[in-house]
Specification:
Layout (H helix, E strand, L loop, with lengths): L5 E6 L7 E8 L3 E9 L10 E6 L18 E3 L4 E8 L2 E9 L4 E9 L8 E6 L2 E5 L8 E8 L5 E7 L5 E4 L7 E12 L2 E4 L6 E4 L1
Antiparallel strand pairs: 1-8, 2-7, 3-6, 3-8, 4-5, 4-7, 9-10, 10-13, 11-12, 11-14, 14-15, 14-16
Length: 205
C-alpha cells in the first residue's frame, strides 16, 4: 500500500473471505496517521471491524496501538478511527477482519507531513501582520496558529491549497506581541492529517 492513498474494501461473513491484509514498507521509523472508516460492517453498536498489526515475522505488534492485552482495535459500524502511530523501518502488516458481519470499509496510512519552513512575518499596517511560509508538495493546505503575548496558541485560519503561502492577520492591537506557527495538513479518508509545527515567529505591533 502507499502513503496517503485510501483503499476500499468489502468483507464477507464467509469465514474464508472475511479478512483483508495490507503491507506497508516504511523507509525509516516515522509517524503515520492510520485511519479506518467502517461504512457498513456489523451492527451500529455491536461487532464491527478488527484491525490487527503484525511484524515481519508474523507476530502481533503490540506497540502500534500501545496495547497490553490485545494488539487490535475495533471500529464499529458508521465510525471512523484515526490514530497517530509510529511505524518501524521495514514491513508492517495489517489485517482487517469482519466480526461475523459483511460490510464495506476504507483504510489508509498517511505519513505525518514534514515541518513547514521559511516562516516570516511582516507588518502590513498598524493593525495587521502578514504571515508567509514556503510551500510544500502533496499537501491539502496549511493551518495557522497564533498566540498573543504570553497566552496559548490557537488555530486561527485554515488555508486551502498547497501553493498558497501567505495569510494576513487583521484587526490586531498595537503594543501586543503576536507569535505564529504554521503546519501543513493532508486530507485523507475523511481526516485532516496534521503535520509538524514550524518554528515560531513573533512580531510586536
Amino acid at each position: 500500500m502507499k502513503s496517503g492513498k485510501t483503499y476500499k474494501g468489502l468483507l464477507s461473513d464467509d469465514e474464508e473471505k472475511s479478512g483483508d491484509y495490507f503491507r506497508y514498507k516504511c523507509p525509516g521509523r516515522s509517524k503515520y496517521y492510520l485511519t479506518v472508516k467502517n461504512i457498513s460492517a456489523g451492527y451500529e453498536d455491536y461487532r464491527g471491524l478488527h484491525i490487527t498489526p503484525y511484524d515481519r515475522d508474523g507476530d502481533y505488534d503490540y506497540s502500534i496501538f500501545d496495547g497490553y492485552v490485545s494488539p487490535s482495535v475495533t471500529v464499529y459500524k458508521g465510525e471512523r478511527y484515526t490514530k497517530l502511530v509510529t511505524l518501524p523501518k521495514g514491513n508492517t502488516y495489517f489485517g482487517i477482519i469482519a466480526s461475523l458481519e459483511s460490510g464495506k470499509y476504507k483504510f489508509s496510512i498517511t505519513k505525518k507531513p514534514s515541518k513547514v519552513k521559511g516562516v516570516k512575518l511582516s507588518r502590513k499596517s498598524s493593525s495587521s501582520i502578514r504571515v508567509k511560509w514556503e510551500s510544500k508538495d502533496n499537501v491539502t493546505g496549511y493551518k495557522i496558529y497564533r498566540k498573543t503575548n504570553n497566552g496559548s496558541y490557537k488555530m486561527i485560519k485554515t488555508v486551502k491549497g498547497s501553493g498558497k503561502t501567505s495569510y494576513t492577520d487583521r484587526n490586531r492591537k498595537a503594543g501586543n506581541k503576536y507569535s505564529y506557527k504554521v503546519r501543513a495538513y493532508k486530507y485523507v479518508n475523511g481526516y485532516a492529517c496534521k503535520g509538524y509545527y514550524s518554528d515560531a515567529k513573533s512580531k510586536t505591533l
